[in-house]
Amino acid sequence: MTDAERIDALEMRLMHQDEIIEDLNKTVIAQWKQIDLLTQRVARLGDRLEAAKEGAELGPHQEPPPPHY
């Protein structure tokens, strides 16, 4: 194998690796966006759960009146 052939082979491998790295980078970015979205949803659900717990802890005489009173 001549030096030129070796260099060509290395350049092709490098180009292929660059493409793979770019694809992996896009995948990681998409996953982080999805993780952020899911984290926000879990936080909102946690807030709703806490609010429901607080509402359940109130007795019937402690419950605030409906807005139309």
Give a quick summary of the entry.
By secondary structure, this protein is mainly alpha-helical.
Task: Report on the architecture of this protein.
By secondary structure, the chain is mainly α. It has one helix spanning 3-57. The protein is rod-shaped. The model has no long low-confidence stretch (mean pLDDT 90).
Quickly count the helices. 1
Count of distinct strands: 0
Helix proportion: over 70%
Kindly name the structural category: mainly alpha
Major sheet characteristics: none
The percentage of residues in β strands lies in under 5%
Q: Report, as a whole number of angstroms, the end-to-end distance.
A: 91 Å
**Shape summary:** rod-shaped
SSE map:
Layout: H1 3-57
Defining key terms:
69 residues, mainly alpha, 1 helix
